[in-house]
Amino acid sequence: MLVGLAVLISLFYAEEDWRGKRAWENCKRELEAKGAVLDWNAYIPPPVPDDQNFFKAPRMTEWFVRNNGKSNTNDLTERLRNVDTFATNLNEAAAAKYLAWSDQFEPDFDLIREALKRSYARMDGDYSIPYQIPIPNFATTRIIVQTLAQRTKYFLLLGQPENALRELTLLNDSRHFLEGAPTGKPMPLVSAMINAAVTGLYVDTIAYGFQRNTWQESQLVALQKQLAEINLNPFVFDALQEESAATCHTAQISWIPKLFDTTIRATWMTRIVWWFWPSGWTYQNMVNVAVLEQKPSEGFDLAHDTIAPRKFNVDFDRYFKHAFPYEILAAMAVPNFTKAEQTAAHNQTLVNEAQIACALERYRLVHGDYPETLDALKPQFIVQVPHDIINSQPLHYRRTNDGQFVLYSVGWNETDDGGQVAFTKSGSVDRENGDWVWQYPQK
Length: 443
Hints:
This protein is mainly alpha-helical. 51% of the residues lie in helices and 6% in strands. The chain has helices spanning 2-33, 60-64, 75-80, 92-102, 106-115, 138-157, 161-173, 175-178, 189-211, 217-228, 233-253, 256-261, 268-275, 279-294, 317-320, 328-333, 337-367, and strands spanning 300-301, 306-307, 396-399, 405-409, 421-423, 429-434, 436-438.
């Protein structure tokens, strides 16, 4: 009897292991034929010369590389944490006080400016294991860009657009180490989303300059050039591709009981199952993770710089409601990529609209009014007018009776709502509904 049971158990494991490995090999072959890259080694950045590496410049590793397992504060973040750092009083007295206080950081900002002249951004660390790769210190990044945005706004309030441009340029340039220049490898989804968030702050600060009517021709030209160089979608696309390879590679090299027990809460029964987990089940999970995480790629058309929101609507419930045993990794590890791409697409749209807004303002400075159509901007004020990345059609534009204009994308719902912004119950902009509008001046 025991011998028979042992034979049955052996046959069960052999069958499950064979089926699982075969399913993974077929899945991998099919996805790679469509262009997917599931080999984790392809995401490991090559070594770069120290003298050309941002993170090898003085203080940059200390400030901008996260210390796993330790506090991510450092001397710069501690000094920046002042009651005035996030001041909200936009008046001349507050501006003078804040700028006088924050001038002490100019030597630090100059170090960052100098470091950003280097061509590469590669952190030291072990890249062979996805969950151990080094990542930027987002706490430092956040407080620095917020400080630069505040300084920019106060310079604008005091009528000093050149000083404002200098701070805003550093804010924009700081995105480059988040992008892992120049290879973009690796590109964790969190890095891509922090990059998108910094971009959103950058555009919002530009808009404040329009509200104050402070930007002049020379600054508008410089900002327009910076905006034209921003393209968030390739980084989000690469991050989503990397997520699939990272999750599958982690599953393949990890001991399943330890991997599951450290990431989710489990009952004693599921723990028993994990201890007797066939390797074939790991491969079956890798199939579901790879298939699910490759689905967002269908929504990108990087060649034409467009996305298709409807292709991001994936039925997550299929994976999360019946997540045992073949789909447990998908339920545990797959991020909400719909929200990620929606945020990136929204902020990229604002970048494109800001670029057009700069050209429109330059046109107005020359002609005294905004043009009837965006085509009138070419080629003197803009070489190519950005299109709506949602549907590849021209962005909607019209002049208004009050001497302003309306400029908008059809947004995530892919419907022209006439330039109307939708809001959530909390009063924030609803990115799923309504149009994505360049609000000029800001409201």
